[in-house]
Amino acid sequence: DTFPKDKIAMSIGIVSAMFSIGVSIGLLGGGWIVSNYRWEYCYYLVAPLFCILLAAFYFLVRDAGVFVKGRSIDYPGAVAMSVCILALLIAMTLIDGSSVTDPVVLAFLALFLVMLVLFIRIERWAKEPLVKPSLLAGKGKGAHITAFLFGIAMFMLYQTLPYLLGAPESYG
């Protein structure tokens, strides 16, 4: 969306390589940390790195089409997306200790759906949307939807694999 056409192939290759290396290091390093310490330490180690990378991005990436003067940030879209994701995560967390028919779980699932619809409406009318609806139209829509679903599947695999491998043999 923001790269010049002659640099798209190279940038996709760099991102793919970084993703592969990061996942490999993350799975191996995360497994080692969880084996020797507690799972919370994974977050304690990543938080300082995130802050360093955020500062490096801000100071080193001058114009990626984000910091252009006159552009606005879609705060209503960001709030709607945040509440949407938070409601879904809380509902999924509560389902673990109760059932899907629990009124509190149903309330959070309803909040998730309402905020998802609201987020989509906000993005359609926003001057500078967080997620451009045009990316889901035209020739590339199949690729974008496939990449989105593939990303979710990979995240779910990487998130649940350590729990499955660390479960007692009696669980199967």
Short key terms for the protein model shown above:
71% helix; mainly alpha; 5 helices; 172 residues
General form? globular
The largest β sheet comes out as: none
Give, in order, the helices and strands. Answer: HHHHH
Q: State Rg.
A: 20 Å
Fraction of residues in H or I helices: over 70%
- Beta content comes to under 5%
Weakly predicted, low-confidence segments = none
| DSSP helical segment count | 5
The overall strand count is 0
Going by helix content, strand content and strand pairing, the class is mainly alpha
Mean pLDDT across residues: 82
Q: Note the gap between the termini.
A: 45 Å
Task: Provide a descriptive summary of the structure in words.
It is globular and about 55 Å long. The protein starts with 7 loop residues before the first helix and ends in a 6-residue tail after the last helix. It has five helices and no strands. With 172 residues, the protein is mainly alpha-helical. The longest helix is centred in the first third of the chain and has 29 residues, at 8-36. Helix content is 71%, strand content 0%. Helix 3 runs antiparallel to helix 4 (103-125).
Question: Mind sketching the topology for me?
Answer:
Layout: H1 8-36, H2 40-60, H3 75-97, H4 103-125, H5 141-166
Helix pairs in contact: 3-4
Question: How would you sum up this structure in a few lines?
Answer:
This protein is mainly α.
